TrEMBL record:
The keyword Hydrolase applies. Residues 703-801 form the Glycoside hydrolase family domain. Signal peptide: none annotated. This is Glycoside hydrolase family 2 TIM barrel-domain containing protein. It holds the Pfam family Glyco_hydro_2_C. The lineage of its organism: Bacteria, Bacillati, Actinomycetota, Actinomycetes, Micrococcales.
Amino acid sequence: MIRVPLLDDWTVGPKLGAFEALAGAASAQAVTLPHDAIRDLPRSADSEQGVHSGYHSGGVFEYAKILDVPREWRDKTVVIEFEGVYRDAALFVNGDFVVHEPNGYNAFAAVLDPYLRYGEPNRITVDAKAHKDSRWYSGAGIYRPVHLLVADPVHFALNGLRVTTSDIDDERAVVTVAATVDNETRHTRTTRISWSVTGPDGEDVAADSAPLTVLPGASATARARLAVPGPRLWHPDHPDLYEVRVGLHDEEGEQIDTDAAAFGIRRLQLDPQRGLRINGEVVKLRGACVHHDNGPLGAVSIAAAEDRRVRLLKDAGFNALRSAHNPMGRAMLAACDRHGVLVMDELTDVWTRSKTAFDGSATFADRWQRDIAALVSQDFNHPSVVLYSIGNEILELATPVGATWSRRLADGFRALDDTRFVTNGINGIIANMDRMAAASADATVSDPNTMMADMGEQMALMNASSLVTETTEESAAVLDVVGFNYADSRYELDAELFPHRVIVGSETFPAKIDVMWGLVERLPHVIGDFTWTGWDYLGEAGIGRVDYTDADGYAPTGTSGPYPYLLAECGDLDITGYRRTISYYREIVFGLRADPYLAVHRPQHHGRPTATTPWSWDDTVSSWAWDVPAGSAVTVDVYADADEVELLLDGDSLGVAAVGAEKAFRARFETEYRPGELVAVARRGGAETGRHALRSATGSPRLVARAEATRLDADGLGFVAITIEDGSGVVLCDRDVVVTVGIEGPGMLAGVGTGRARTEEPFAGPGVTTYDGRALAIVRPTDAGQITVTVQAEGYAPVQVVVSVAD
């Protein structure tokens, strides 16, 4: 079925009860979908959702649109499709209830035919709500795209095109295509299905056709086995994609419907001796967990933003993403296919025991089959998806009933798709919280993050205990790959206890990547590591922060950042896509960067005591442009895969330090700040292996704006990087200013933000304070033409960038 975007001319406002609505209309604002109803609401330290949502409030919202329905649609089938509505979506047409979808991450659709009034305007409304139902920022509303489908009553079923490629050799690959047709008439119809396959270069490589008879009110599936000669196999290093196009023809040969799907030809293998293989090659998963929000856009999912996020994560060294802790959106899956990023797609954060007051646990037992079906239906044709995760840190997993649920869910996935592997993010400590609390008279269990942080190194010992071994064995046995959250202490142990077990680090502490990756490389049954997290996110505010404990008013708060913390502050990349220093450390650990990397501790804070969490990294910036007196003490870290590093300032040696003396892949220097060129030279066996240089700023600083692309698609986004820098491009990271963004032309400011975790500045703009000299503005086109973006700041000359929007 052909999807047409249904994104314009919506309104949203607070949902009123029936009697409230009689008293007066709610205030509603015009919006373009996708839209996040919570992002721009006031934040407060008193928010009931608290630190989990970044101190955003919840709410109940009503979206509305007037849809003109022509009379000729009376002979058609009209379907509306939502890629995701958070949460408890209820769809009404002209006030009549149509469908309810409780899961905020499921795509769902509804046939509108019984409710439409032909030849007149129809009112479509969607209710959505969010309130204490998530452990991170969820947003609310119609945050993913909406589509309208108007089709002949005999048509391809929605998501009814499936492709498998299990029969592959060097000479050819057999592409098996299944296309389902729905007949909503009162008569038997004999149709003809045509298939054609296009290769990565756009050439036609296979085609066929066959008749298909469909009984009235029924569905039928046509299948074809198409031999593709000399297949180009999909792989993370060369993500070659094919496309299958199908046509549906009536008895007279007229085409009445079409559909298409991109797919990849690839072969998966798994065993404890060689781990995961793709097309016969061993692949280790350099993984990142990611939440679904898009930073300054809130929860909004737009294809251009998802593509940028995947591309930048791949550029930073990751080759795999885990959707934490919900099904990945359609646009991000497509981006992973294009860029060669493998996917662990996760079903849920809870089963039948709740983690938050109003989460989905109460209805999980009734809807788990529909949730699995929705996830598989969306993922089936995507070659990037290699793992289905049935859950994350499930509370009941270590009980007999939890083991029963584990088997039920794993088999539910396999019944619908046996071409991928099934895993689960198991945290043996959280699964045994009740037993551990009972074992300690003074035990108090707060939120799981604080509990794990407080346990420190004891967590590794407890995860390797016989209690965890015995209570999780049955749940682990139903999996193809056992995912362990923060349980690297089990990796070698399980090779002895369970020699057929394959393991993945489904969630690990970022600062331990040197240890984690060493285990992944050394142990063949451990197929990869997924750090928490790859891209910073809203909510779980301050979980990775660095506190200076001598600050006025400092009080320990565990992993909960006090208001106005907004971001988690634990991503390798911040919410604008800028790489934090840990990202370069990880790249070196992965063996993907030969040159060393300079990370400087802020000299303004030298010597101050700090408090961190297990998700923290050092408060460092890759800069040698500081507004401090010459001679100020400063700590300099150099990340390197080398024996030693020499530090030079304007050619003069500041000393040589061994790499790995305190931490693997790191050399540390205590020195003084003086303007100039700071160079780190890495050596192994006395021979130079690489160098990295930083320069101080010179001259007057200036305001700079750079568009990542000067030409945009009509449904795309423009990303404009804003910096304070000198004439040679050196960014001044400690002279932050308020910048204001203005838009002229056919576009709007979709969001503006920085990587600052503690802030009260709204993403709606138009102003924001730069952070480490940087900010990001996001522009959304409203029509074709030229958009002028003007950036201003007090004391600086204004700057402009122009982007063109295609027709």
